[in-house]
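Suppose you are handed only two things: the residues of a chain and a line of SMILES describing NAP. What would the bound structure be? This form records exactly that question and the answer produced for it, so the two can be stored side by side and reused later without any lookup.

QUESTION INPUTS
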Amino acid sequence: MDHPSLDHRPLGRSGVTVSAIGLGCMGMSEFYGPSDDNQSLETLAAALDLGITFFDTADMYGVGANERLLGRFLKGRRDRVVLATKFGNVRGPKGERLGVCGTPDYVKSACDASLDRLGIDTIDLYYQHRVDPNTPIEETVGAMKALVEAGKVRFLGLSECSVETLRRAHKVHPITAVQTEYSLWSREPEQEMLEVCRELGIAFVAYSPLGRSFLTGAVSSPDALASDDFRRANPRFSGEAFAQNHKLVEALADFATAKGATNAQIALAWILNKQEHVIPIPGTRRIKYLTENVAATFIRLTPAELATLDGLFAPAAVAGTRYAAPAMAGLGL
Ligand SMILES: NC(=O)c1ccc[n+]([C@@H]2O[C@H](COP(=O)([O-])OP(=O)(O)OC[C@H]3O[C@@H](n4cnc5c(N)ncnc54)[C@H](OP(=O)(O)O)[C@@H]3O)[C@@H](O)[C@H]2O)c1
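ANSWER OUTPUT
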């Protein structure tokens, strides 16, 4: 059942609407230090109770563990959830990275494996996680289209693609959503992609909208992160860049305090108030943060306040790239 007071947004031209913010589930299985499945399951259930209907996972998160976790959550709740998952980042059984694959055979087998782990018959939104530079997008999306025709998938998405790739893909089959990093400190989509999505009637799903927690102010130092935390190797969290970026977070805290909100809430409200076709999917493993993030959907920012935040986080003021060099090279932009 949808929460009566939580705003909804159209998922592109699919005819389906989803809660104005979704829940990113990645950190429940990997990347941000240790996690606890029971705590994550409680958070997932609480999200649904709070009115969140849009849940985001991928086959590579925890090498299948995140989809299996979602499968446990979905039992008895399937019809209340719009479930998005992704394929394309290939990993071996020990988690080793084996590159990106978008060949038609791989697309079919990856989808079957995801359906099996999720314990469902149909994926609502199926994204290509990264564009395969060795397979023409027409071939990959052609195979994704066949999944729609077979009833295994309802809608198609692309993650971290270029505008040109998106336009080519959209000719093969309507693309319902593009998922790319977008937040106060990651503004690249403002150059072109946000406008192209608006033009084509495609939802833009903003991942890492809290800057992987950095914007919230909760990360006091890179040393405070677990030894296996992915962010330790992220340029924005390292050395001098951390210190420079932290000054921006302190300025955001001043703004948030004056508005009677938290940093996380202003970071999400900035996205929601600025772009009507954007759906942020903040990730959290905790009910406390979840509740705080949901409350951001009720915050209204004036054009002047949006402009202040835009200026505060002008791209030139942010230090470091959003991924380390090898991952930046794989973005397909
Ligand atoms: N397509 C892609 O390539 C791609 C890449 C990255 C992510 N994603 C998707 O996007 C989702 C969200 O991105 P993300 O998880 O990377 O980053 P994010 O949403 O920007 O930040 C998540 C981090 O912020 C913390 N957090 C959440 N709410 C908070 C609050 N109110 N106050 C303080 N800290 C808070 C979380 O802590 P706890 O977990 O400890 O609660 C977690 O460490 C992922 O879960 C995943 O589904 C997609």
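WHAT STANDS OUT: Residues 311 and 317 are 9 Å apart (CA to CA). The first helix runs from residue 37 to 50.
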